[in-house]
Design goal:
There is one protein chain. The protein has 295 residues and is mostly beta strands. The protein has no helices and 25 strands. The protein is rod-shaped.
Length: 295
């Protein structure tokens, strides 16, 4: 038997390092904003598909969520790779999307207001409130959940508010402002004697009419009516535009003068051939009439 031959050789096994990924994230973000995720530590980066990412390549991606009033948690997965060795590392990145405040505005009138009236707006759903008119958003008109304003024209109001996560949202409401009907009151005679009448009229482009002191009027719901007051009276009329509800008022004063009380100095009768002197008082002017009375 011969001596066994033994051969020895070596092989080197090189263990390449894997990327050590460093992640920088802007999480949490509000759902009406965007945030970035930046990764370093490798040569190439591949992201698993996600609808919230703007790209699936590169070390920097932008997260663009859909506005929501619900808290949302997501995870994004990135693969970092060394170009020379092909060694890879997978990193899973949690990301928080904070909800927006669930806000609303309730107006004191859903139908709009009349010119000169006050609108009250009640906001809800937030912590802090800021109000402005859309045509001048730089002028804050309120910093509470309730705001009052007297707009001179149809106005859109903006409301901003935040929540406990620091997320802001805004909403708006448009308040129509309607003009009042035109109104003027006139009379055929604003001074009358006791027992006489005069006409009073409301000149307006409104639809319905309502006069007060109706008991001395011919028709308290007409634009023109006959007034027969027993004493000096103020008549106030309210005219309403039925489509907007706007109703201005105006008035007219009718002065009633009492009838003269005639006082005569005649106390006895006279004979047919006698001459009679008569003196009366109680009026400013007099007109005499003769009436032949026979039994």
């Amino acid at each position: 038997h011969g001596t066994p031959c033994t051969f020895t050789d070596t092989i080197d096994i090189f263990v390449q390092p894997v990327p050590a990924l460093n992640v920088s994230s802007e999480s949490p973000i509000c759902s009406n904003s965007t945030g970035t995720i930046t990764v370093s530590g490798a040569d190439h980066y591949h992201w698993l598909p996600n609808n919230l990412l703007d790209t699936l390549q590169g070390n920097r991606v932008t997260v663009t969520p859909t506005a929501s009033t619900v808290m949302f948690m997501d995870t994004f997965t990135v693969i970092g790779e060394f170009e020379q060795s092909g060694c890879r590392t997978v990193a899973t990145i949690p990301f928080t999307i904070s909800p927006l405040p669930a806000i609303s505005i309730v107006p004191s009138s859903n139908q709009g207001i009349c010119l000169g009236d006050t609108i009250t707006l009640l906001g809800s759903g937030g912590l802090h409130y800021y109000w402005a008119a859309e045509n001048s958003p730089q002028n804050i008109i309120g910093r509470d959940s309730i705001v009052q304003n007297i707009p001179s024209q149809t106005t859109t109001y903006l409301m901003w508010t935040d929540n406990e996560y620091g997320c802001f949202d805004t909403t708006s409401i448009t308040i129509p402002v309607y003009p009042h009907p035109t109104l003027a009151v006139q009379t055929s005679d604003n001074e009358i004697c006791y027992g006489f009448s005069t006409s009073i009229s409301a000149i307006s482009n409104g639809n319905t009419y309502q006069w007060d002191n109706a008991s001395s009027l011919g028709n308290a719901n007409a634009s023109s009516t006959i007034a027969t007051p027993l004493t000096s009276t103020r008549y106030t009329v309210t005219v309403t535009n039925d489509s907007t509800g706007c109703s201005p008022t105006d008035y007219i004063d009718i002065e009633v003068h009492p009838s003269p009380q005639i006082i005569s100095d005649i106390s006895t009768g006279v004979c047919a051939t006698d001459t009679l002197g008569v003196t009366i008082s109680g009026a400013s002017t007099y007109q005499w009439f003769y009436e032949n009375l026979t039994d």
